[in-house]
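Shapes recur. One chain:

:::
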Amino acid sequence: VDLGFLLITFFILTTSIIKPQTMEISMPSKDKVTDPPALKQSLAITILLGKNNVAYYYFGTQENGKDPEVIKSDFSSNGIRKMLLERNKSVVARIHELSLQKEAKQLTDSLYKKEVSKIKGDVNAPMVIIKGTDGSNYNNLVDALDEMQICNIGRYAVVDISDYDWELLKKAGEPVDPVVK
Protein backbone atom coordinates (compact mmCIF):
# COMPACT_ATOMS: atom_id res chain seq x y z
CA VAL A 1 0.00 0.00 0.00
CA ASP A 2 2.84 2.42 0.87
CA LEU A 3 4.58 1.66 -2.40
CA GLY A 4 1.33 2.26 -4.29
CA PHE A 5 0.84 5.67 -2.68
CA LEU A 6 4.46 6.60 -3.40
CA LEU A 7 4.05 5.68 -7.08
CA ILE A 8 0.77 7.59 -7.36
CA THR A 9 2.35 10.64 -5.70
CA PHE A 10 5.37 10.42 -8.01
CA PHE A 11 3.26 10.22 -11.17
CA ILE A 12 0.98 13.05 -10.08
CA LEU A 13 3.93 15.34 -9.37
CA THR A 14 5.84 14.53 -12.55
CA THR A 15 2.84 14.95 -14.83
CA SER A 16 2.03 18.35 -13.35
CA ILE A 17 5.66 19.51 -13.67
CA ILE A 18 6.05 18.56 -17.34
CA LYS A 19 4.21 21.09 -19.48
CA PRO A 20 4.23 21.06 -23.25
CA GLN A 21 5.96 23.95 -24.94
CA THR A 22 3.70 25.77 -27.33
CA MET A 23 3.91 28.89 -29.39
CA GLU A 24 1.00 31.31 -29.40
CA ILE A 25 -0.30 32.14 -32.84
CA SER A 26 -3.15 34.60 -33.18
CA MET A 27 -5.59 33.47 -35.81
CA PRO A 28 -8.17 35.79 -37.33
CA SER A 29 -11.80 35.30 -36.45
CA LYS A 30 -13.88 33.48 -39.04
CA ASP A 31 -16.94 35.54 -38.12
CA LYS A 32 -15.68 38.99 -39.07
CA VAL A 33 -14.30 39.69 -42.49
CA THR A 34 -12.37 42.93 -42.45
CA ASP A 35 -10.10 44.58 -44.93
CA PRO A 36 -6.43 44.35 -44.01
CA PRO A 37 -4.98 47.58 -42.62
CA ALA A 38 -3.00 49.78 -44.95
CA LEU A 39 0.68 48.90 -44.97
CA LYS A 40 3.61 51.10 -45.85
CA GLN A 41 5.56 49.27 -48.54
CA SER A 42 8.83 50.34 -46.92
CA LEU A 43 7.86 48.26 -43.87
CA ALA A 44 6.90 45.11 -45.79
CA ILE A 45 9.26 42.14 -45.72
CA THR A 46 8.33 39.02 -47.69
CA ILE A 47 10.00 35.72 -46.81
CA LEU A 48 9.72 32.94 -49.38
CA LEU A 49 10.46 29.44 -48.09
CA GLY A 50 12.25 27.40 -50.75
CA LYS A 51 13.60 23.88 -51.20
CA ASN A 52 16.48 22.43 -49.17
CA ASN A 53 16.01 24.74 -46.14
CA VAL A 54 16.70 27.86 -48.21
CA ALA A 55 14.79 31.07 -47.66
CA TYR A 56 14.54 34.11 -49.89
CA TYR A 57 13.40 37.55 -48.86
CA TYR A 58 12.70 40.92 -50.38
CA PHE A 59 11.56 44.32 -49.17
CA GLY A 60 8.49 46.17 -50.41
CA THR A 61 6.95 45.47 -53.81
CA GLN A 62 7.46 46.27 -57.45
CA GLU A 63 8.09 50.01 -57.92
CA ASN A 64 8.02 51.83 -61.27
CA GLY A 65 8.18 48.51 -63.11
CA LYS A 66 11.31 47.44 -61.24
CA ASP A 67 11.19 44.21 -59.23
CA PRO A 68 12.60 44.18 -55.69
CA GLU A 69 15.93 42.48 -55.12
CA VAL A 70 15.44 38.90 -53.93
CA ILE A 71 18.10 37.82 -51.43
CA LYS A 72 18.94 34.18 -50.74
CA SER A 73 19.37 33.29 -47.08
CA ASP A 74 18.93 30.56 -44.48
CA PHE A 75 17.64 30.15 -40.93
CA SER A 76 20.97 30.65 -39.16
CA SER A 77 21.73 33.54 -36.82
CA ASN A 78 23.51 35.29 -39.71
CA GLY A 79 20.63 34.72 -42.12
CA ILE A 80 17.00 35.68 -41.70
CA ARG A 81 17.46 36.54 -38.01
CA LYS A 82 20.19 39.10 -38.68
CA MET A 83 18.05 40.81 -41.32
CA LEU A 84 14.95 40.85 -39.09
CA LEU A 85 16.85 42.24 -36.12
CA GLU A 86 18.35 44.94 -38.33
CA ARG A 87 14.95 45.97 -39.71
CA ASN A 88 13.30 45.79 -36.28
CA LYS A 89 16.04 47.36 -34.15
CA SER A 90 13.90 50.25 -32.83
CA VAL A 91 11.27 47.81 -31.52
CA VAL A 92 13.93 45.52 -30.04
CA ALA A 93 15.57 48.50 -28.29
CA ARG A 94 12.25 49.68 -26.82
CA ILE A 95 11.42 46.17 -25.56
CA HIS A 96 14.91 45.89 -24.06
CA GLU A 97 14.32 49.15 -22.14
CA LEU A 98 11.02 47.75 -20.86
CA SER A 99 12.69 44.52 -19.73
CA LEU A 100 15.28 46.55 -17.80
CA GLN A 101 12.45 48.43 -16.08
CA LYS A 102 10.75 45.12 -15.29
CA GLU A 103 13.96 43.72 -13.78
CA ALA A 104 14.27 46.88 -11.67
CA LYS A 105 10.71 46.19 -10.42
CA GLN A 106 9.40 49.40 -12.00
CA LEU A 107 6.83 47.46 -14.07
CA THR A 108 4.49 44.62 -13.18
CA ASP A 109 4.29 41.54 -15.39
CA SER A 110 0.86 42.43 -16.73
CA LEU A 111 1.87 46.01 -17.54
CA TYR A 112 5.08 44.75 -19.18
CA LYS A 113 3.16 42.34 -21.42
CA LYS A 114 0.65 45.04 -22.32
CA GLU A 115 3.41 47.51 -23.28
CA VAL A 116 5.34 44.87 -25.26
CA SER A 117 2.18 44.03 -27.18
CA LYS A 118 1.60 47.72 -27.91
CA ILE A 119 5.20 48.20 -29.12
CA LYS A 120 5.09 45.10 -31.36
CA GLY A 121 1.82 46.22 -32.94
CA ASP A 122 3.04 49.74 -33.71
CA VAL A 123 2.19 50.91 -37.26
CA ASN A 124 5.89 51.74 -37.83
CA ALA A 125 7.04 48.22 -36.94
CA PRO A 126 7.88 45.93 -39.87
CA MET A 127 5.25 43.59 -41.30
CA VAL A 128 6.54 40.17 -42.36
CA ILE A 129 4.70 38.08 -44.93
CA ILE A 130 5.71 34.41 -44.94
CA LYS A 131 5.02 32.39 -48.08
CA GLY A 132 5.89 28.74 -48.49
CA THR A 133 6.59 26.98 -51.78
CA ASP A 134 5.66 23.39 -52.51
CA GLY A 135 9.32 22.46 -52.01
CA SER A 136 9.52 23.85 -48.49
CA ASN A 137 8.80 21.69 -45.50
CA TYR A 138 6.89 22.17 -42.26
CA ASN A 139 10.13 22.65 -40.31
CA ASN A 140 10.92 25.74 -42.43
CA LEU A 141 7.59 27.30 -41.48
CA VAL A 142 8.17 26.56 -37.80
CA ASP A 143 11.68 28.05 -38.06
CA ALA A 144 10.26 31.19 -39.68
CA LEU A 145 7.62 31.53 -36.94
CA ASP A 146 10.34 31.01 -34.30
CA GLU A 147 12.31 33.86 -35.85
CA MET A 148 9.24 36.10 -35.48
CA GLN A 149 9.26 35.44 -31.74
CA ILE A 150 13.03 35.76 -31.34
CA CYS A 151 13.17 39.04 -33.26
CA ASN A 152 10.10 40.53 -31.53
CA ILE A 153 8.11 40.78 -34.76
CA GLY A 154 4.50 41.37 -33.76
CA ARG A 155 2.99 41.83 -37.20
CA TYR A 156 3.33 38.84 -39.49
CA ALA A 157 1.13 36.68 -41.67
CA VAL A 158 1.39 33.31 -43.37
CA VAL A 159 -0.18 33.52 -46.83
CA ASP A 160 -0.24 31.60 -50.11
CA ILE A 161 2.50 32.24 -52.61
CA SER A 162 1.48 34.28 -55.66
CA ASP A 163 2.42 33.93 -59.33
CA TYR A 164 4.49 37.10 -58.98
CA ASP A 165 6.53 35.47 -56.18
CA TRP A 166 7.08 32.38 -58.36
CA GLU A 167 8.53 34.63 -61.06
CA LEU A 168 10.83 36.32 -58.53
CA LEU A 169 12.01 32.90 -57.32
CA LYS A 170 12.77 31.81 -60.89
CA LYS A 171 14.84 34.96 -61.42
CA ALA A 172 16.67 34.30 -58.12
CA GLY A 173 17.64 30.80 -59.24
CA GLU A 174 15.28 28.73 -57.10
CA PRO A 175 14.56 25.45 -58.91
CA VAL A 176 10.83 25.60 -59.64
CA ASP A 177 9.05 22.41 -60.66
CA PRO A 178 7.48 23.12 -64.06
CA VAL A 179 4.50 20.86 -63.21
CA VAL A 180 3.71 22.98 -60.14
CA LYS A 181 4.22 26.44 -61.68
Observations:
- Residues 29 and 35 are 13 Å apart (CA to CA).
- The longest strand covers residues 44-49.
